[in-house]
Amino acid sequence: MDKPTVSVTILGQSYKINCPKGHEEDLKEAADYLNEQMNDIKASGKNAGSEKIAVLAALNITHDMLSNRKYARSNEQQLRELTSQLDAALTHETKLVNE
Predict the structure, then answer these.
(1) For this UniProt entry, which residues form the secretion signal (predicted)?
(2) Mean predicted lDDT score pLDDT of the chain
(3) From CA 19, how far away is CA 2, in angstroms rounded?
(4) What is the pLDDT of residues 25-34, one digit of tens each?
(5) In angstroms, what CA-CA distances link 39 with 35, 54, 89?
(6) Is the pTM of this model over 0.70?
(7) Which run of H or of E encompasses 17?
(8) pLDDT for 45-74, tens place per residue?
(9) Where are the domains of the chain?
């Protein structure tokens, strides 16, 4: 399978990265997001090297992703509970109507 090469810039460094065909824009978006995160950390005034900035950005992004995953699971559980309550209420309503 032919993999296109996408050029991205992160902290002023250019990188050419292979990605699956059709995912070029996703890769560019991810690189732009990473670049923003790393630039924010760099701009915070801490005198850190690129490696430390990359690790801090990776930790921040991972934390956000895991928090969003937990939030989604919580919402999913609430939706299941509401669905169960609605099913019970509709079952009860049907019994009352049929009596």
Answers:
(1) none
(2) 87
(3) 9
(4) 999 999 999 9
(5) 6, 10, 53
(6) no
(7) strand 13-18
(8) 777 898 999 999 999 999 999 988 877 777
(9) 5-98
